[in-house]
Amino acid sequence: MVDDNQNAVKPSPFFTWLNKNGWVIWVVFLLIAVGIGYAIYNAQKPKQGGTLYGVCKTLMDFEYQYPFTFDILSVSEGRRDVRIFMAETNSFGQERIIQVDCDFSMNNNKLLLARLTLDRKAVPDEKIEYYNRIVPTLASMSDTLNRDLPKPLPKSLQELKR
User: Fold this and answer.
1) Residuewise pLDDT in 10s, the chain (162 residues)
2) What CA–CA distance (Å, rounded) separates 20 from 14?
3) What are phi and psi of 91, to 5 degrees?
């Protein structure tokens, strides 16, 4: 007579261990869910520019009087310079395109503003010296600066019209 226990398929040691430790499935499921949530979050948030862009955008805010509405159209960042194109709408409703150029330099491991031009007009050296007092502080607080980059410009002319 043949014993049925000898012919029975034995479960693998992994499945035996998994039956004893069922919490592992829940932990793996939770880690996968957190990973998917993090990926969705990163896909939805706007792209971030560098520290130089955040500092330049902050200095640009100091230069224009309130009430002032502007939309940043495009940004180009170099190693030590930032160029921002924006559409300004003043209090009378007039709209114009402005180019802002910020050139930075390093001095004794401190970030300094070398030149700032607004609408192709250079900012006076007195203001540059004044701004250089706060530029290192702004650069050290780069995580708190608004560094959101604008959405890319559309490919077709119809989408580009406002």
Assistant:
1) 555 566 667 777 777 777 777 777 788 889 999 999 999 988 888 888 888 998 998 888 888 766 567 788 888 898 999 999 988 887 787 888 889 999 999 988 888 999 999 888 999 999 999 999 999 998 888 788 878 888 777 788 887 675
2) 10
3) -70, -15
Q: Which two tokens stand for residue 55?
A: 């500092």
Q: Which of 59, 58, 99, 51 is nearest to 78 (CA)?
A: 51
Can you list the alpha helix ranges (DSSP code H) found in 23-151? 23-44, 51-63, 125-140
Measure the CA–CA gap between 122 and 159, rounded to whole angstroms.
34
Token duo for residue 36: 């998917």
Q: Measure the CA–CA gap between 91 and 51, rounded to whole angstroms.
A: 30
Rounded to an integer, what distance in angstroms lies between the CA atom of residue 134 and that of residue 54?
Answer: 13
Q: How far apart are CA 126 and CA 26, in angstroms?
A: 63
Residue with tokens 């995580």: 143
